[in-house]
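Minutes, project check-in

Agenda point 3 was the complex the collaborators sent over. CS summarized: two entities, 640 residues total, and the question is how they sit relative to each other. Sequences were read into the notes so everyone works from the same version.
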Amino acid sequence: MLKEVIRFEVVRSLKKPSFWVAAILLPVLLIGYILFAGFSGMNAEEMLSQNSNLDDKQVSLMDESKLISASVLENVATIEDKAQGVENVKTGTMDVFYFVPSDLKQPIEVYSRDGAGSILTDYKSKVDEWLKVSVLGELTEEQAAVMVGSYQVNDIKFNDSGAESDELSQMIAPLVGLVVFYVLICIFGNRLTTSTVEEKENRITEMLLTSISAKTLIIGKIVSLILLGFLQVMILVVPILLIFLFARGHSIAGIDLSTLIPNVELNPLVVIVSILLLLLSYLLFVGLGVFVGTLVPTAKEASSYVSVMMILVIMPMFFISSFLSTTPTTVTYVLTFFPTSAPISLFLRFAFGTLQWWEMALGLLIVAVFAALIIRQAIRVFQFGAVELTSKINLKDAFFRK
Amino acid sequence: MKNIIEAKHLGISFGDKNVIEDLSFEVRKGEIFGFLGSNGSGKTTTIRALLGLYQPSRGSILINGKIFAAGAEPVGYLPEERGLYKKETVLDVMVYFGRLKGMDNPLKWSLDYLNRVGLSDKPKERIDHLSSGQQQKVQLGITIMNNPELLILDEPTKGFDPVNRKLLMDIIDERHRAGATIILITHYMDEVERLCDRALLLKDGVAKVYGTIAAIKKQFGGQSLDEIFVKIYGSEDA
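CS then shared the predicted structure for the full assembly.
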């Protein structure tokens, strides 16, 4: 029976074009976004540099502070009278006039004309650059390096067994787990509830429950959603693995692609714990979705519940700064051990290395127990709510009805 | 003759409202049992209690001496609320239910049935592309799949034209002759008189008439079931 439910649910999902659109589109959009963000980041500095480029502008300067070096002043017209400098800009003789006061507690004044550049032209950063170059020019090479931070630090840490620890390799598995979990909840959030509410919406529960038990039906749906989730993960991960495999030993335009892949060795224990956390987290999420589906008569009415459910699950993202702290805060602890927010909290803290082993064990236990309880409750509510075809089941009845 | 269903002092309440009160009856193996009453009299509630969809507040209702367990008892139920997986094809839905009911070859059985009820060109059609009458035929097919020992049919011919009504009655009669027990819930008293061995008439959750069709008619001076129905509902409502 269970096998038949799973087969029916999986096959009909795979036959729907909407499944494949969601399954393929989201990873494509995700990869596209990452590439776009990277490209934008690469261009940002270039754009800023263009915005502060005054090569084609008539620029004048009056420096009462005497901080700007002679080498800088060689390339700029200097003026001794502030009022004249301002007047030059007003009449169009000059595009920009900078006035640096003797006391830098007073503001530096920048005068420019409308139309001298685009609205994004950054005149202010130029004087900032002149002052820094001038002051750094007075320092030794080492002092200047300290001031601009242009020195290297090799941060070597040792783990409890005295071996050198590789933080990047520790982070990769939990972060990949977090991304996969996030993709799954984005794609399957609504599908979970619609899958359960469909029988009620189609007035088919009574016929079904004379052939199979509510338990078999709900577990069949949950297993099918896990299988579909696994397929989704494969669609996401397999192309990335293929790219990695292709990159080894190949080169494009003379660049050895294998040099672009970070050389990390994954810790098997971290990988196993991450996979276990992903499985339990997804099970909990599926259980929540199915439970919501048992409460409502139509998919439309489920949407408001789904929104609440999603917020409860992604709650840690709203407190991301707390997770970046090396010392966990009260908020971090609460979110780590609150069942619905535990999955993302555990992934984040595991990745950032702020999670003790006992916290992970307790977190996994909470997620597993809550998943089991919510699935058990979903089965119960589906059984007694099977003939509630037009009205919602309230949460009091869902948990306390005998 | 052994009983397949036994209800003893059954009571069902929702909050303060008693929907079924102290209802006791039996359905004997192999008979066609008419379960009658106007809308809201408690027929569907009783059937839902029989199938474990409602918990009795008092008393009991058992199938073969046990509380119903899905899959364990071979029951076919055509409920009052009609529906199927609308986006799936006729054959996919029938084969799915056939497998759930433990059939060895649901595909062949489904094609034969569709052929018999005039839907031989519809196996690959989506359910929501069928007319309501065609959907009802598919539902009846699902209900009688795998020869259930007990068939519960709630308004099986509602909305059918006379030709299709006769076709479905023939199918029901055939199942009966093959040994199935049938509970027929209907407002067509002529169907009850023609098909049923015994009947129970429910009003406000209370059994008003119960026995063989001949005994019921004799009790009311040889009146037809239609006249008896009107008398029971009319006299107390007046």
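Noted in discussion: The beta strands of chain A are 59-63, 77-78, 96-100, 109-112, 157-158, 164-165, 251-252, 255-256.
Follow-up: revisit at the next meeting once the mutant set is ready.
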